[in-house]
Amino acid sequence: MQSKKNEIWVGGFVLIALAAIIFLCLKVADIRSFGSQTTYRVTAAFDNIGGLKERSPVKIGGVVIGRVGKIWLDKKTYTPQVDLDIFTQYDNIPSSSSLSIRTSGLLGEQYVALNVGFDDPDLGVTMLKDGDRIEDTKPAMVLEDLIGQFLYKSGGGDHRQSSAVPAQAH
C-alpha cells in the first residue's frame, strides 16, 4: 500500500514538472494563445538586416504591434526583403512611416522599430494596408562595424603629425 502511495506522489510531481516545462517553453516562444490574431502584411527592403529573425517583434515606442513574417532575398537586386505582419487593430499607421532595425540592450534580440510618419491627405499620404511597401528604411547596426569604426577613429586618422620630426632652430 505504501509503494502505491509513493507512486502516486511521484506521478503527481512528474505531471507538475511537465506542465512547468510546457509553460516555460510557451513563454520563451512568446506564444500568448493558440489562436492567431488577424494581421495585414507590409513589405520593406533593407541594406542589412543583421541578426533579425522571423517572428521578431515590430514595435512602435516599445509596444509590440506585429511580428516579422518572412525574410527573403530579392533575386534581382540581392537585397533582403522583410514581410511584416501588423495586427489589424493598428490600421491607422501613415504610409509615410519609416522602419529601422534596432537591438534591445547591447547584445539583446533585434526588432523592427516603426517610426510613425506624418498624416496629411493633401500630400497623398494614406494609411498602410495589406500589400503596401515601406520605402524609408534604415539598416541594422552591426556591433562589429561599430567597434571597427571606433578603433579606426581612436587610432588617429592622420599619422603624418606623429611621425614628423620638429626642425631645430640654429
Task: Please characterize this protein's 3D structure.
The protein is α/β, with parallel strands linked by helices. The chain contains three helices and eight strands, in the order αββββββββαα. The protein has helices at 2-28, 143-154, 160-163; strands spanning 39-45, 57-60, 63-73, 80-87, 98-103, 110-115, 133-134, 137-138. Strands 7-1-4-3-2-6-5-8 form an eight-stranded mixed β-sheet, with no helix packed on it.
Helix-strand pattern: HEEEEEEEEHH
Strand content: 25-35%
Shape: extended
Radius of gyration: 26 Å
Strand arrangement within the widest β-sheet reads: 7-1-4-3-2-6-5-8
Q: Separation of termini?
A: 110 Å
Number of continuous helical runs: 3
Mean pLDDT: 83
Number of domains: 2
Tell me about the largest β-sheet.
Answer: 8 strands, mixed
What fraction, in percent, of the residue positions are helical?
25-40%
The SS-based structural class is alpha/beta
Question: Which blocks of ≥5 consecutive residues have pLDDT under 50?
Answer: none
The count of β-strands is: 8
List keywords for this structure.
single chain, 170 residues, alpha/beta, 2 domains, eight-stranded mixed β-sheet, 3 helices, 8 strands, 27% strand, extended
